[in-house]
């Protein structure tokens, strides 16, 4: 069983669901509605403990489904009082560490090898391993994907949504780039580690192409009801990609450190840190008015910045001091532009 949610009248309502095998496909079914506040089903008898109201157990028994109390506790764990949660977290972590991990059954192995979608494997790789390069997929043991076995599309998506909650927003576009394996469309060496430097317009087109391809992929949506238009489970990736552009920090900060090391080595006294540039100076550096800068979206800013950064790169004849100031100007604007604009 697992915790799912649905939006109604701009409110989130929770429900206990279960993945079941139906005509050879795993589908989800509702077991119990929990309303908008599942914590009302929790009781605290005192001390460092809690229990789940017997009403929940009675309804699950009435549904005719087999269930485990440990799984039920996991469903309600997000709603447990923070104080109790802190007290019990150590025990849960120790139990998880000491738990014996059995070998895969034949059924698990078959499901993972032949029925688990490659997009699910890639997402899990990034979220568990931080793996940007998905070309090594075949080297990962099948057992690694055990938590994804025998789950409906709905359960898998709720699992991934929860896991994605641990991502830093600066990672969103890298995550999407990784699991759609967009690097396979590029020959450039940087495609494996620094997609920031790729042709952004082409990358955008390829991303939309792959999103639409997945939306039409019948094998991905097996057992899951579909409506017209892009599925809500994929819309979040469009938002991640377009509203949170690739951070230029990694690639450019590395370049800046290299240039500073090469050009300033041997100086006994470091140069005094420069103040953050004001909007007038930022406009001068980027070659546009302050009024225009204030109206720009983050996406537009990133594109303009990328073009100027490539042009002003010291390896292409640009001045390394101007390159550093360009980076500072960009970082200043990022603080002033709201993500999603």
From TrEMBL:
<protein>
    <submittedName>
        <fullName>Heat shock protein DnaJ domain protein</fullName>
    </submittedName>
</protein>
<dbReference type="InterPro" id="IPR001623">
    <property type="entry name" value="DnaJ_domain"/>
</dbReference>
<dbReference type="Pfam" id="PF00226">
    <property type="entry name" value="DnaJ"/>
</dbReference>
<keyword id="KW-0346">Stress response</keyword>
<feature type="domain" description="J">
    <location>
        <begin position="281"/>
        <end position="338"/>
    </location>
</feature>
<dbReference type="InterPro" id="IPR036869">
    <property type="entry name" value="J_dom_sf"/>
</dbReference>
